[in-house]
Amino acid sequence: MRAFADLYTALDETTKTNEKIAAMSRYFGSAPLEDVAWAVHFLVGRRPKRLIPSRDLVEWAIAEAEIPDWLFGECYHAVGDLAETIALLLPPAQTISELPLHYWVEERLLPMREWDDGTRRKSLVDAWRAMSDRQRFVWNKLITGEFRVGVSQNLVVRALAEASGVDANVLAHRLMGDWQPTAEFATRILARETADADVSRPYPFCLAYPLEGGGIEALGGVHNWQIEWKWDGIRSQLIRRQWRTFLWSRGEELITDRFPELASAGALLPDGTVLDGEVLPWKDGAPLRFAQMQRRIGRKVLGAKILAEVPVVLLAFDLLELGGEDVRERPLDWRRAELERLVAAAGPESHLVASPLVEGASWAELQQIREQARSRGVEGFMLKRRGSAYRVGRRRGDWWKWKINPYSIDAVLIYAQPGNGRRASLFTDYTFGVWDQGELVPFAKAYSGLTDEEIRQVDAFVRNNTIEKFGPVRRVKPELVFELAFEAIQHSSRHRSGIAVRFPRMARWRTDKKAEDADTIETIRALLPPE
Amino acid sequence: MGNLLESNQNGLYCSAGDFYIDPWNPVNRAFITHAHSDHLCPGSAAYLSSRAGEELLRARLGPDATVESLDYGKTVEMNGVHVSFHPAGHILGSAQVRIEQQGQIWVVSGDYKLASDPTCAPFEPIHCHTFITESTFGLPIFRWANQNETLDEINAWWRANQQAGKASVLFAYPLGKAQRVLAGIDSSIGPVFTHGSVEQFNGIYRGSGIPLAPTEYVRSAPAKTDWSRVLILAPPMGKTSPWLRRFGDFSTGSASGWMRIRGTRRRQSIDRGFVLSDHADWPALLSAIRDSGAERVWVTHGYRAAMAQWLGENGFHAEAIETRFEGERDEPAETAAAETEP
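ok -> structure tokens follow
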């Protein structure tokens, strides 16, 4: 646990990619294999669910620290993070344990699920007594299911590559799919021989960067690019191997059971095939609203009714494996042609659709066509370089998303509350209102988009202009106006304004505008799609 | 028996002796616990400090101020009130002020710590009836490690930076903290440079016979100085401050009690936090308060309300009293909190 806590600290103390990779690589090269497996598991974000309710954790920590409840509250307020507050409050350990990470996880963390409260409490308090502040912090984060560290899967892969000498692309592939954090897994990951075989394992997804406003000209001639609509679905790979079908989401969840249509579609593909695409609710040759899909996702049991009302397709746009061979290095045009052939062979009832290509003679013409995006229920275009290979992860150059401009409106800051963790003592979470018959009605919440300096200024404003306090929430003088951007808008019965928006964020602080210049609910209603 | 001290619009006032302790407005007679700016307001007609702190007061107040001083433990009488200064262990010359009238004893701690510090005389426990304590770190989350452990961490960070070819920029409060670091670090690792605000106090410390690592003033460094081996002591500043540009690639650290909290370090975008404070931590506050034997405790500066409530629940007559820096603990800029630590 000591080495893992030190690794966490090292990662926490730098923002530099190379230093993060070096710290992980040192750890992977020196820790026991069992620990490497767990460390990889946690670093890529596969954290266990919360094992103990916070209120128990707090109660036990208060008893161990011998302080009154209210004083715990004061401390929490000063620190802003539960796991850290507890780590700092507890009396210092007499002796610090040298037991390895996998012991703590396998013998002390995971079994908690089965233990009764008394056993849990004793085990947890004993653990605290054997750990330094630093270890306790990491341990508490694991127990509360909030372990997070600022590294991407890609960085973990690069560190593993550095520690093992195995090619990063091979490692990225080995980390996909369903694996258990065991010593065998770690051995397999770091093994130099590359004849891997895991029947269900997906490939790392190729991801696109957004193309900023003016960048289109820099891409060169239109004829170099394959253009598709950018669909708003669940990015997935459909895998057919050894007469079995697997559907993986980009969140690396196996979702085959939730889409029986696609489970059967797999059977129409030749053995050794992997398609990449978006799972979309689809009827009569067009997508349904994503909200319809949400009706389906939430259900444990899929009845005939919902399957009939919200059928899905895989809108396939790439082919990664054919005849059991990895074809990611083949040029895009070749993969596209093979993909079309496979989809055609599967037939019109297969729930497989080849993502239609968009033709345009110039960027200007495409820009015009792009205006149809909203009415088609898509987010814009995907641009893919003809002749390019299918790459691992998010890279610049071959794939771009060219989205339509977000909606934007001006709204007034009306409520503020403190953030979490790093932002705990600053007011960073804001509620914005728009005018409705002379009154400001809450319209959206937003947390992101401001610079640190702007956050400090808004924070100072909130403190000096509070009208009312409700717990942590402050109602402030309606004075500051912000331009909010969002991706989609729809009717909602759960919101007071009757409207819900997707991904709202602060695009700009409109210091040039007064509260009365903000938008009205009528202007915003005009953006709503027809019911 | 009335109160020997009262808290009025200028600060803590003793009407029987007609003097203030650490007033925050100009007054006739100001008795000063130590030279940090939140305890030393310029413009008073006359100042009295400990002998050890006199030079620092003069440096802060300028040549025209009337500053007198008193050895630790010596008493002056002000209209039947006996006043003496006793070491508080906070910085060079820092003092607790003991006030006695007709057998009633009050002690104003100023800022203090119990931990060892080679740059100043150690805290002296004094028996009293009323103890006025600071509470900068008056919550049980604040607990300091032994200072040698922290100094070792600083040394190790400096060495690692040298290996990585980076300068080491350590932010430390320029009066007190910076000198404590200079007295404790391993100066065989490499050269140490300082910001002007630090350098001005180094001379006074050395003149008082306190050995510090040799330092050079950054401004006087030759044009081609290789900063990658150097430790630079500077007052807290942003990572993007233009003053830092000259050092090329550098790592930043901060020596402060606030570094105990991860969020403080992260909000200030500092690479390394070293928990080194010149204030008492929670256990030390409690032990100093107990050792004073006081029945009544006034709490100033810091987590006043929490500390007073805890003391009240544990058998003391405790009260939170006004300080100059009123307002919430989580006031806007985090740097404000870091800078009021002096």
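The domain at 147-274 of chain B is CATH 3.40.50.10890 (Rossmann fold).
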